């Protein structure tokens, strides 16, 4: 049966050739490691978010009078509504974690270097889009947590002199977070960002395939000179299918298993009590904190004595990261041979973790 | 090869189970809600509620008051105060509904006149059919 | 120390330069303190979120020009259950909190502090149901006829009002006018129902912590509890005993609903765990399958 379908397609689009070149003869480095699967896992996570989000759209009402109640209806009345909502909430947090690890491993293995600078930049833009997805989506349930976390984050631009206040005003659609903000964030979350994200994702994947997947730098590879275009083909590598495909699928299964573990045994991990209380503009909850992925920047802002400096530092750090392939043009990709960079990397990761934990408990 | 075949079979079984375990909830999720059983309606004779008078009933586990307003006809309102849930009382003299807990005041449309209630009283669907009033 | 490559030096220099630029620029803003400024500016800005209501009452009564006896009142009020529910000065005393000139004006219905015998009607402006039962009680009748007897403030205090609890009925308070025996009987009659209510409150809290939206249940409990308490103010033990069963039935229904919710939560856990195992199985299967392809 399967053969007949394959044959039908083969006659029309030359399916066999596609399978041959894109899967069986496409080779990946022999020493490819598990971190290389994370890009695919992140993409699978994104698809899951899009699908669950799409179904939640059937019942969610994006108006400040109805938003909270519609989410509660999904959680209590709609059959299995809780399942899709939990998948969306837990899945989003896990996706951010995967994206962070993917970014760190790419950095660690120096895969951002020539000729892959554009891939790195596209990746960082996607990280920023993912964080914007998180920010906009967070407001939609219109709970105490949503309202106040959004209030804090949309107040951050006010640190900038001259245009800071206007920037915050535009973000919120007014003087404070209101139904207008909700509508804007909904439109951004559901229409604008997905289109932008998928476009950049397309570019990112195209670049990875066109340039060729990088080799891990820890072997004894000779450094290559890039003076003209050459696809990195790994002729002595292993076939993409079945070896690497199976590993990618395996990692996706682990991702989903972890997601269901959290949904089953820790359902309130990302939904504290404030997430279950309708938004009340007159009452600030006792300990508002942003979600975990924003804790480190938040804590840094609290520590730096000057508001403007704090926000400016964040922007400079992001700019440094995005432009890193142009700041670090040394050819050596093996970070273990570059003590200074390795220490800087490890210290940054440690500082990030410490700031996040500090932010959580302060 | 035998092992591979077995594993492929195992994966097919697991995969189908996974797919079914996600498709079934999805189908139930997307299915339109079942119509509330029509039989739940309550029918009352018009003549039982005089003009200016009221009747209190329980509909769907909720205390409801049916008012025969002199100017606007019949209306059925939930008696559960939208502030903290106490049961509102009818004040015939002042033509309003009063909540004994924190003095929330509603007019005979259910709208809040004064006090802490944040929202109007929910209206219960009501139809007049000849000699009867049908609630629900 | 290894020879520092010029590229590392270049990027380090760029980083330092940008850091320096921001330090210079921002120090033009002036040196400031840390956390307090941050939280104050981010949260207390009127348009940054919490819209704090202005009160001229508090402004005068908490200041140094006020008589010492009155100066404590705002602080006492801030510890009260009224404060938690955003009931403030003008809600009971009238006046206009937004306009200092009219804050105590009779044109804005300013009522001042009520006389001892006027207290029940004063509190009864909002607590209507309780006033009705109180006036029919022995306590209310004593106040009406003799001018002595407990009014609301006697048991509940005036500005430091706490959430009402069965422990307001205690020997110290109730034996001021008569023997504690009567109060004790009443307390016993109330006791079991109050205990059940407290247990249900705890269950609802647990549900809430478990991620469930409990507004309807909370409202149901509140209305039942409020009705029960209103009943108490008639200070009629036989009436309490008569009506207790009705209340117990209502509370049992609520407990059933809570149990249903707990069961539903259990189902969700099991279903999600089932899905987790399926995907673990898939993962293991794929892993083993990939091993059979090792070339």
Record keyword descriptors for this entry.
heterotrimer, A: about 350 residues, mainly alpha, Cytochrome Bc1 Complex, Chain C, two-stranded antiparallel sheet, 14 helices, about 65% helix, about 0% strand, globular, C: about 300 residues, flat
The SS-based structural class of chain A is mainly alpha
Number of helices of chain B: 1
> How much is the average pLDDT of chain A?
88
Unreliably modeled segments of chain B: none
- The SSE order of chain A reads HHEHHHHHHHEHHHHH
User: Mean of the pLDDT scores of chain B?
Assistant: 87
Oligomer: heterotrimer
End-to-end separation of chain B: 66 Å
CATH class placement of the largest domain in chain B: Mainly Beta
| Residue share in helix of chain B | 10-25%
Strand % of chain B is 25-35%
CATH topology value of chain A: Cytochrome Bc1 Complex, Chain C
C-alpha termini separation of chain A: 62 Å
Range of helix content of chain A = 55-70%
The strand line-up of the biggest sheet of chain B is: 2-3-4-9
CATH superfamily of the largest domain in chain B: Rieske [2Fe-2S] iron-sulphur domain
Major pleated sheet of chain B: 4 strands, antiparallel
How many strand elements of chain A?
A: 2
In angstroms, what is the radius of gyration of chain B? 26 Å
Question: Would you mind describing this structure in some detail?
Answer:
The complex is a heterotrimer of chains A (362), B (136) and C (295). Chain A is an all-alpha fold and 362 residues long. Chain A is 65% helix and 1% strand. Chain A has a single domain, classed as Cytochrome Bc1 Complex, Chain C, CATH 1.20.810.10. Chain A contains 14 helices and 2 strands, in the order ααβαααααααβααααα. A two-stranded antiparallel ribbon of chain A has the order 1-2. Helix content of chain B is 21%, strand content 33%. Chain B has 2 domains: 1-31; 39-135, Rieske Iron-sulfur Protein (3-layer Sandwich). In chain B, a hairpin with a 2-residue loop joins β10 and β11. Chain B has one helix at 2-30; strands spanning 42-45, 54-59, 62-69, 73-78, 89-91, 96-98, 105-106, 112-114, 123-124, 126-129, 132-135. Chain B has 136 residues and is α+β, with helices and mostly antiparallel strands. The longest helix of chain B is centred in the first third of the chain and has 29 residues, at 2-30. Chain C has 295 residues and is mostly helical. In chain C, α9 (128-136) runs parallel beside α14 (215-232), α13 runs antiparallel to α14 and α13 (180-209) packs parallel to α15. Residues 28-35 and 44-50 of chain C have low confidence and may be disordered. Chains A and C meet through α4, α5, α7, α10 and α11 of A and α1, α2 and α15 of C.
